[in-house]
Design a protein that fits this description.
DNA binding, Multidrug-efflux Transporter Regulator, Chain: A, Domain 2, MerR-type_HTH_dom, 5 helices, mainly alpha, single chain
Length: about 120
């Protein structure tokens, strides 16, 4: 399938798909005409990329994780044990950022509640 079809099937823009290729996340074949040629497996790969981006991971980390993602009967699992600690650290970093944002919201709430109503 061509890039437009992959875009339609995944809901991801053509620009993003080209970016994923630049970041070494997608590896389409090239037709003689120069057009990119994708296969059905690329639909699943793009969906996984989207899920990992939504989880807050960088494309550099996703590049390391994608080859280790395997589908099991009870969901996705990592087949590379060395990534476990990295993912735990990433999760903990996100939790720290969430705590910082919550503290900022509380500080703003205190300022707002102490301000005269306009």
């Amino acid at each position: 399938m061509k890039i437009g079809e992959l875009s339609r099937r995944t809901g991801v823009s053509i620009r993003s798909l080209r970016y994923y290729e630049e970041q070494n996340l997608l590896h389409p074949e090239r037709m003689v005409s120069g057009y990119r040629a994708y296969v059905d497996v690329d639909v699943v790969r793009v969906q996984r990329i989207q899920a990992l981006l939504a989880a807050g991971l960088s494309t550099q980390k996703i590049e390391r994780i994608l080859p280790c993602m395997m589908l099991h009967r009870d969901g996705l699992r990592l087949s590379c044990a060395d990534l476990h600690d990295d993912l735990v650290a990433e999760r903990n970093n996100l939790l720290d950022r969430i705590a910082t944002l919550r503290a900022s919201v509380e500080a703003l709430n205190a300022i707002i509640s102490a301000s005269p109503v306009r």
